[in-house]
Amino acid sequence: MAVQNRHPRQKRIDLEQVGESGEIAALVAEGFDVDHFNLVAHAAERGGFRTMIVSPQRSLVSGRSGQREEMNFVVDKHPGDVGPSTYDGLLVPGGVTSVKALMKDQDARLLVLDYIKANKPVFALGDAVELLAEVSEKEGVAGVAALALNGEIFAGDGETAQEDAASAFVDALTVKADDAA
Length: 181
Hints:
By secondary structure, the chain is an alpha/beta fold. The chain has a single domain, classed as Rossmann fold, CATH 3.40.50.880. The chain has five helices and nine strands. Strands 3-1-6-7-8-9 form a six-stranded mixed β-sheet, sandwiched between helices. Helix 3 packs across helix 4 (128-136). The radius of gyration is 16 Å and the shape is globular. Pfam families: DJ-1_PfpI. Residues 24-135 form the DJ-1/PfpI domain.
């Protein structure tokens, strides 16, 4: 009698294909939530997208995992040096310290707004939902995850909201990539 696998295997990431579909920007500052970043970066990589780090910091930026482990990431670009034509979508992970710094940074705020105006997908998690709501000037945006698509913002709460929104974000990236091809 064969034992059924209780946990289906996730699709393996082919490193040769990461970046074939395009690139997304992760807008972060010191203290960002690494678990939020990883949730979306892994889903995007499975879809063939490479994740690039955009930060007001110039060389390295530190984030924290749920286990309070500090992790350093190399900064690829500064928010003032990129725009919606540079990347296919924008991810803004949570983290109180990070989001406060991004709210104070004019280039970061303008980058989020430019992506919204360009109808590019913007995905915010945790504390970053507040940043997305403030920059977009939309009322009633609250939850653990929010997704800006085609000028509208969809926010959700609940047990699976982050995973569901991450999946919708990657789907939106894929549709945009297909439309561009």
